[in-house]
Amino acid sequence: MRNINDNWLYLENHTPNLNEAQKASNWVSLNLPHTWNAEDATDLMPGYRRDASWYQKKLNISKIDQNQVYSLYFEGSNVTTKVYVNGKEAGSHIGGYIGFSIDVTKLIKEGNNDIFVRVDNSYDIEVIPSQKSDFFIYGGITRDVWLVSKYKNHIENIKITTPEVSAKKASVQIVSSFVNPDNSKDLSLTVTLKNPKGKKVASKTVLVSDKTSTITFENIKNPELWDTEKPNLYRLSAVLSEKNQIKDSVSEKVGFRWFEFKDHGPFYLNGKRLLIRGTHRHEEQAGVGAAMTNEQHWADMKSIKEMGANFVRLAHYPQDPEIYKACDELGLLVWDELPWCRGGIGNDAWKTNTKNMLSEIINQNYNHPSIIIWSLGNEINWLPDFPDGDNAEKTNAFLTELNDIAHQLDPTRKTAIRKYYEGSHIVDVFSPSIWSGWYSGSYKSYQKAIDVYKKEYKHFIHAEYGGDSHVGRHSENPVTGENIIKAEGWEEAIVQTKVANIAQIGDWSENYIVDLFDWHLHISENDPTFVGNVQWAFKDFATPLRPEDDIPYMNQKGLTDRNGIPKDAYYVFKSYWAKEPFAYIESHTWTERQGPENTPRTISVFSNCDKVTLSHNGKSLGEKQRNLALYPVNGLTWDVNFTKGENILIAIGKTKDGKTVSDTLKVNYRFNKNDTAVSLQLSSEKLKNGNYLVTAIAIDNNNLRCLDYEASVYFQCLKGGKTLKNQGTPTGSESIRMANGKASIEVIPDGSGNPIEMTALNQSFKGEYLKISVE
């Protein structure tokens, strides 16, 4: 296999005609992965480019072996793809989130080969996901591309199952399928299994006389089990030989584990109860959209694991191959999802495309021990694209078909669906919609909701809960909706116009969301019969449906921002789940506060340590024992009487074995409350990367920062550089709502040495100007 990501050319032209594309002169060079929506998805203009583009590459193949077959393997190309080699059509694929192979053996030649690829993400209701989904459908070759060459007789696929697993013994079954065009009678397959330390535990050789062969290793004694704490992986190699000469080999990882969803009860992994501690991942990042590097994929998964999660739902589509590798190696259980997201039931072409994609997902991801659930969709009957698309009878008939396909292709795993109640009985595991404290009701209704559903659904899991938070926005009294909303509800409504809820009336402060998550975890961590829950979502992500959010076009429900930088909420989860000792004083983005003199403020410390001490300006406020039964913050709160000016808080956490960790926070406190905002004050600081951070602060007549000012401000760089815009991050958007009267943007100097000239403005302030001398 040879990675061919580098040195492609790109043409933004939707012509379906290859000749026309070849003649075009405005090709630009780039490397893959790539999406043409990396920035236009999150710019301030409504909509984003939904159209076709072309890619081309000169692929040099120095020698062609007549005994080899050659193919191009695309890990993902969104949404429909057509491939041409040396002027001839080589193949095509429908569906954007899964890999596919194009045979080019008969079309290539020695030397330079012209590869042209047309990719199209146009509006197409016959291809899932529905355009009504709450995320962008990024166009382009969004993942790696490979040139694969194999001997003409080769292993096409190996499927690994573990029919028997216990702590004492295990078995593994390997079903190999072959391509053998000459019907050679001299083929043999040798399969070897090595334990996690590399020691051989089993090996077998069989003659290959058919298109498939099955090898079983029985009685593997005392297997080293795969679990979320110790993700032990065995290595399996399959070698195909012809007349004792090696012609092909395939290597896979194997994990021995078994799991069970107890009826109306918890989840068990390897015979022990495991509370599912989950989050969701969208495949995208600031600045690149879905065209992430493997390093960026791994960074997400490592951060999820460091938080202490043991489960991840891949939302709402299968993801890059590196994600599954990471989950196998890090010990994260996976819910892998067919992208049937909204849009209802479709026509015959839609059904064919959807069934094909489910088969592709299961066949490609089959060998990963981390995967325990094949999800058949999410909110599937919301907002139908076709007439009668929300017809439950028709939907259930098709859902049953999908469920049967999943079980036929893989009898070892469970099927699931989220928020389609009419089909809850069809699948193995069901997630209803519970958005306590955000889209409905108060978060205090959470226990009641899970008690209702534990009884109602045989195998119930709770996927999706949380709410939006704007980095740096804090409130001494977060809006909880008491006496305004109906506190008892918990389900999200399709149309949000008729319901009063926190999503609409809340302050989007980091404080409120911290309280909401703390309550949800307080409930789930103390309920011995609960299966567990899956927070929505790990990172802020971009969506066409939310132009009016604090950062336009961003769903801000992440525990981190769109670059993966943790918000306060990340530390709430860490305090319940993480192993590595830590302490975090709430909050590092809340360093300017105000209030009357001699009014104590409750300070929370998120920590997983056994005991924590907090000191204020050098004086200890006492040691507290962490207690899982206490809310909020497992009892780690102190009342602090702030002094005027600088206050230094130090938290020291001590583990059971005497290890200590600490956190320090400086808070500037004032006793006089700000008046109405009258102007913006602009300032700049040079960053380590050579860029400048330009900050706007709303101030009153007394030059006090207006901690209650939350309107949007608009930044513009007039000369000397350019803003880092369209990122969807707290310092990467030209339009952003203020957080406690403050907003910032990163500015990149143009290298000329000329001063940078900036403006920030809105309706209230008309405009402020800043000139920065560039060093």
From TrEMBL:
Keyword Hydrolase among UniProt keywords: yes
Sequence ranges assigned to domain Glycosyl hydrolases family 2 sugar binding in this UniProt record: 51-149
Keyword Hydrolase: yes
A UniProt-annotated Pfam family: Glyco_hydro_2_N
Ranges of residues in domain Glycoside hydrolase family 2 immunoglobulin-like beta-sandwich: 154-257
Gene Ontology molecular function: any one: hydrolase activity
Lineage top rank: taxon: Bacteria
All copies of domain Glycoside hydrolase family 2 catalytic, residue ranges: 263-476
Domain DUF4982: 602-661
Keywords assigned by UniProt, alphabetized: Glycosidase, Hydrolase
Homology family: Belongs to the glycosyl hydrolase 2 family.
Protein name per the record: Glycoside hydrolase family 2 TIM barrel-domain containing protein
Native source organism of the sequence: Flavobacterium ginsengisoli
